[in-house]
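Researcher: I'd like a structural prediction for the single chain below. Treat it as a standalone chain; there are no partners to consider.
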Amino acid sequence: MFKKILIANRGEIALRVIRTCKEMGIKTVAIYSTADKDSLHVRFADEAVCIGPPPSSESYLDIAKVIAAAEITNADAIHPGYGFLSENAKFSRICEENGIKFIGASPEMIEGMGDKSSAKATMIEAGVPCIPGSKGLLKDLADAKKTAKKIKYPVMIKATAGGGGKGMRIVWSEDEMEEHWNSARQESKAAFGNDGMYMEKFIEEPRHIEIQIAGDKYGNACHLSERDCSIQRRHQKLVEETPSAFMTDKLRDKMGKAAVKAAKAVKYEGVGTVEFLVDKNRDFYFMEMNTRIQVEHTITEEVINYDLIKEQIKLAAGDKIEKEAYYPQMHAIQCRINAEDPFNDFRPSPGKITEYHQPGGHGVRIDTHCYAGYVIPPYYDSMIAKLITVAQTREEAIRKMERALEEYFIDGIKTTIPFHQKLMKDEKFRKGDFTTKFMETFEM
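Model: Treating it as a single chain, here is the predicted structure.
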């Protein structure tokens, strides 16, 4: 087992990893930018190293500085959390070259699954259901039009290096293709330095359901059931829950087996997620594989009583997978609490938290790095906390969430708490009657 782990991240996920490491008897190193000097992850790590000024490119994304911090503190492993360098093949490779264990996927795995078109080709070969679309990258506009005609409109053109909704466009007819083709390529080039595009059939009335997986270096893999991530805005998740209200036992079994098949096909090592779109007929299609821990890993932990960060560390240290599948015993919901103004188009709201009171009680969990007096910097993602409730049934979990949101008080900044309060009272949400299009008609 590792003696000391450097956490190459910030905020709540860094604190989350530190907690598990302490329980495992592993020393921790926090890295931080000057903007994060007062963050709780810095305070609770055994050691902390400042690696640069606020911009991510000069701190958390600076590979040389992160490796240097690991070397001067004698860390024998690096946990990347999510975001930043967690799915950076170059970083994974450099860790390897420097004799530091990267607690995540191998460079080859990240490269294979990070490129959407090659990932899809791999899944088709493995027999995992995939959305009909182009065979690899589209050559040009003419190829895009020809492919769309073959798979039939509506279609979705996507950036092969994409993420966070960038470089994606829905095209409803051939008349719209040229405009969307050009704008998607320009956006992708600006965001990722790559304007490669591929195409898929656009799935109407979809659910976004992902399967948590884990794999070891001996070729074993398991799934840990599903999470429904359909409540999202501009492709950014807002609320996640498990089990999905849309799921059946038969579908869970089929999707779980498909996810394990996907993991074994690529010899997946570590903890990851296979993401699917599920249509109104409960037919499911592979979307992508995330080769890292997810923001919403918390709800899976709560319903199966399983520390996924601990499992991630153990797998990286060479442990074996013990079971083929885990199934939810409870119901859990997670609300992402962002420093955003839901009454003003979710505009970011950084600044000083003047008053802070978080809820508690049975079945309530909060992952956060915030406190009264903490200044939320404007340089990073706006998520400041994750509020999770767990209960015997979905109805009870929603009621518990309503109570917890009432107790959650953050002053000095705007947050998404009012949005979540309204969502929990929404009739369609309470019935489980929603798709990824839900937020297009939801009004504050």
